[in-house]
Amino acid sequence: MAFLCSRSRCLFYCLTAAVIVAGNAAHAQVVPSTPPVYPPPAPMASDTLTANQVGEAQRYAVPSVIGMGPSKGVVAHLEALGNFNIKSDLRDREPNEKSENTVIKNRRAFIKAYAPILNRPRVKLILGLNYDREEFKFEDPDRSAFYRNLEDKGLKTIGAQLAVVRPIDEVRWYLARVKGELNGDYTSSELSVADYLKLSGEFIYGWKRSPYYAWGVGAQLGYTFGRQSLYPVILYNRTFNPRWGVESLFPARVTVRRNVNPKTLLFGGYTVDGLNYNIKLREPLGNLRTLIIRQTEAKFRLRAEREIYDFLWFGLEGGYRYNYSFNAFDEDSNRRNLFGLGGGNRDKTVVNTLGGAPYVSVELFLVPPRSLIRKLAK
C-alpha cells in the first residue's frame, strides 16, 4: 500500500509538472494583437488634420493613425535661407528693364496656435490662429525699382481657420476647413481687409481601414501653387510597423516617418508651398502703386523632432528650397489670371527667376501632456 501511495504521488507530481510546462509553452506562443508603436497615437501635425484624437480604440474613424507625432498646440518657427540669385524682367516700360541681383537675406518666422473648441467623439471643431512674417534684403537694391520696393519690407500674414473633423462611423470620416488670411505689407493704421484678404478651404472624405491606415480623397481651394486654384488631393496616412510610416496630403506634401523611440521622430520628404502678398509700392512702377506677388516653392527636407520635456518638443529641419516662381502682377492682370482669362507671361508685371538655396529652420512647440493623453485614452 505504501508502495502504491508512493507511485501515485510520483504520478501526480509528473502530471502537475507537465501541465505547468504546457501552459507556459502555450502562453509563450500568444502573439500580441496590437504591437507596440511609438509614440502614442496623435493627429498629423498640420493645419488641416489636428483632430486631437488619442487612444488605440477605433470607436470612431479619424484621419490620424497610430505612430504619428504628438499634436501641436502652439508652434514657434524660425527659418533662414542661404544666398540665392534673382533675375528680374520689369515689363511696365519700353524697353523692358532687366536686372540681376543676389538675395543675401530671406528670413521667415511664424507663430501658430490650435485649440479644440468642441471635442466630442462624433465631432471635433478646431480653431487655429497664425502670425507670419517674411523679409528680403538684396546685395544691391539700387539695381532695380522692384528690389528697392521689396528691400527690408515686412511681409505679414495674419490668419484664422476653423476645421471640422466628423467621424461618420467606425470606418468613414470627413473633414472640412475654411481659412482667411490678411497677406501683405500693411500696418495697423492702413489695413484694408478687402485689399489683403485671401480665402482658402478644403474638404476630404476618407476611410479608416485600421488604427494604422487611413486614406481619403477631396479638393483644396488655396494658394499652394501661387494663384488661387482648386485642385484634387489624396490623403494617405499609414504606419507599416513600429518604426516606419507615411504621412501625406498629395500633391502638396509627402513625408516618410521613422519612429526612433517614444521621444524622437525623424522625417524625410517634400512640401510644396504657395505665398501671395499684396504690397504698396514706395516707388511707383509707371502708374502702378500696388503689386500682387505670387510665390511657389518646393522644399526637399529632412526633419527631426525630439521631446525636451513632457509638454515641450524641439524641431530641427534642413534641406533645399527650389523656387518655381516668384512673379508680380498688377491688380487688373491678377484678377484676369485668377479667372483663367490671363495671357500667361504677358500679364506679369515683373517676371523673376530665382535660384535654389539650402535652408534650415528650428521650432519649439507645445503638445498635450502625457497625463492628459492617458486620461483621454481611458
Q: Tell me the number of strands.
A: 16
The class by helix and strand makeup works out as: mainly beta
The average pLDDT value, as a whole number, equals 82
Output the radius of gyration. Answer: 28 Å
* Assigned CATH class: Mainly Beta
Task: Note the main attributes of this structure.
378 residues, mainly beta, 55% strand, Porin
Can you walk me through this structure?
It is a single chain. The chain is mostly beta strands and 378 residues long. The protein is 14% helix and 55% strand. The protein is built from five helices and 16 strands. The chain has helices at residues 2-28, 145-150, 193-196, 331-338, 370-377; strands at residues 74-81, 84-90, 97-120, 123-138, 155-167, 172-184, 197-210, 213-222, 229-239, 244-250, 253-261, 264-285, 288-309, 312-329, 350-354, 357-366. The chain has a 14-stranded antiparallel beta barrel. It starts with a helix and ends with a helix. Mean pLDDT is 82; it is low at 1-58 and 339-345.
Short description:
The chain has 378 residues and is mainly beta. The protein contains five helices and 16 strands.
